[in-house]
Q: What sequence folds into this?
């Protein structure tokens, strides 16, 4: 069996930063530290941090007074920040800088007197956080039909912002519908779209032309992972979302000569290895890596954690190179 790994895949810079914030907070402050919601949408990452002493809660009332509390990469509303301040919790913000950029854009549009429209998925933590960061009412739209239902005059001053786990391709039709609906509309440049989302989706589109089956590694509650599976399916390739190798159904790949693998932005490379190992249990596997964009983005950590370093020699899930991965699996 030929296995082609998408490039890029897996962790983005915002996820790497969020996980490292929890790691460093544990080193500096000791266990436990409390994390509001999953730090990122991946059960393996969450379980790994839980074993180190992180405690995951849904709301701040589950956090004892004065405890170190970390806000997840998805961001939180102003009311959550205010509650943490009222309770004098030691709060550390792991919100992805690209999500913070969306918050700032939305506030600027609102301050300019525009109605703010958020393109995103109802109920997603990032959407809830963004809506709670912008003064006044934020209108959420998920598709073109909801654009048509907006109760605003055609000449109203309007601005749109987007959930970061949506790509240019995901939002193109909705933005076009907004332009048809409103004569006074502004929005961010396509350059402001999350680079990781766009890159991973573009890689899957290219991968779909080379493979018989696509396996997307990620969590069922991960918006960007689900979208990768959808893109594979839309491209005419059977595509499956799995958390790890234990979820691989041999029937999916029984008649496949070439299997493509990608991973959502919150899926660790260890799980890519795990899925390849599951394929190898079915027969010989040759692994190669598709040519693609190499991401080198890094986001600065909070200043208070700069001096809390990981233990010497500690292996991080992002340390495995494509060459090592292909070589190890082919040799094994």
A:
């Amino acid at each position: 069996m030929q296995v082609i790994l998408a490039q890029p895949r897996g962790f983005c810079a915002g996820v790497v930063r969020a996980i490292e914030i929890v790691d460093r907070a544990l080193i500096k402050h000791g266990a436990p530290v409390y994390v509001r919601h999953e730090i990122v949408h991946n059960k393996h990452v969450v379980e790994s941090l839980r074993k180190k002493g992180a405690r995951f809660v849904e709301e701040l009332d589950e956090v004892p007074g004065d405890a170190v509390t970390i806000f997840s990469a998805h961001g939180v509303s102003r009311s959550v920040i205010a509650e943490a301040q009222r309770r004098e919790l030691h709060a550390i913000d792991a919100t992805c800088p690209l999500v913070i950029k969306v918050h700032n854009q939305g506030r600027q549009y609102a301050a300019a007197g525009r109605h703010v429209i958020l393109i995103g998925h109802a109920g997603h933590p990032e959407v809830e956080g963004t809506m709670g960061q912008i003064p006044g009412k934020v209108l959420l739209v998920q598709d073109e039909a909801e654009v048509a239902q907006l109760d605003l005059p055609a000449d109203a001053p309007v601005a749109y912002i987007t959930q970061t786990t949506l790509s240019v391709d995901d939002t193109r039709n909705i933005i076009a519908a907004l332009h048809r609906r409103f004569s006074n509309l502004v929005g961010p440049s396509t350059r402001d779209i999350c680079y990781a989302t766009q890159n991973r989706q573009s890689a899957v589109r290219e991968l779909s032309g080379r493979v018989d089956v696509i396996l997307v590694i990620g969590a069922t509650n991960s918006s960007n992972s689900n979208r990768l599976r959808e893109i594979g399916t839309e491209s005419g390739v059977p595509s499956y979302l799995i958390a790890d190798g234990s979820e691989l159904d041999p029937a999916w790949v029984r008649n496949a000569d070439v299997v493509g693998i990608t991973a959502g932005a919150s899926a660790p490379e260890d799980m890519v290895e795990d899925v390849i190992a599951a394929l190898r249990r079915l027969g010989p596997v040759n692994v190669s890596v598709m040519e693609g964009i190499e991401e080198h983005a890094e986001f600065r950590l909070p200043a208070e954690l700069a001096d809390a370093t990981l233990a010497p020699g500690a292996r991080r899930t992002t340390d495995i190179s494509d060459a090592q991965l292909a070589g190890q699996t082919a040799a094994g």
